[in-house]
Design a protein that fits this description.
By secondary structure, the protein is an all-alpha fold. The protein has one domain. Helix 2 crosses helix 4, helix 3 packs across helix 5 and helix 4 runs antiparallel to helix 5. The longest helix is centred in the middle third of the chain and has 29 residues. The chain starts with 25 loop residues before the first helix and ends with a helix.
Length: 165
């Protein structure tokens, strides 16, 4: 066995010493990803809930940032700020539940409620960390209940709409 590198030419034939039978590129990657999805990887309930919570958190961050920019030009009262924050939460929970559930799947309402609960628990924990407060879940039970109710309701509505289509 000689120690030629891949790019060296052989003296007799003038061809490369070693040519890979198949280069691994984007096609190979997409084939393996499709194969993995067919086998069911990445389709677990916990992964779907976490993916949904991350989508909801991203929408919340964008929504709050846009709202903060709008408040620079708009003098809103406390009631308007509270109402718009609730709308941002509902839109984020809707997006999270849409990401976490599949239409017509059994247990969709439970997955939606779990997604809403996890989203609101993450929001409460972040709020407590940013404000320097201790996490007292009894003070935030209404928010957690809203997350469960909204997540379950949105999953039920989305499951019914996808089943009809």
């Amino acid at each position: 066995m000689d120690s030629r590198t891949i790019g060296e030419k052989t003296a007799k034939t003038g061809t490369d010493a070693f040519i890979p039978r198949r280069e691994r590129g984007l096609d190979s990657f997409t084939r393996s990803m499709r194969r993995g999805l067919r086998r069911g990887r990445g389709k677990g309930a916990l992964g779907a809930v976490l993916r949904g919570v991350l989508v909801g958190a991203a929408i919340t961050v964008v929504g709050v940032a846009v709202f903060a920019l709008a408040l620079m030009w708009w003098d809103a009262g406390d009631r308007a700020v509270t109402a718009i924050n609730q709308v941002i939460k509902f839109v984020a929970i809707l997006a999270a539940v849409t990401t976490a559930t599949d239409g017509g799947q059994s247990g969709g309402m439970m997955r939606g409620a779990a997604t809403g609960l996890a989203y609101m628990a993450l929001g409460v924990a972040c709020y407590c960390l940013l404000m320097g407060q201790g996490v007292r879940f009894t003070a935030y039970l209404a928010d957690l209940g809203m997350g469960i109710a909204a997540g379950g309701l949105f999953a039920m509505i989305l499951g019914g709409r996808k089943a009809e289509a």
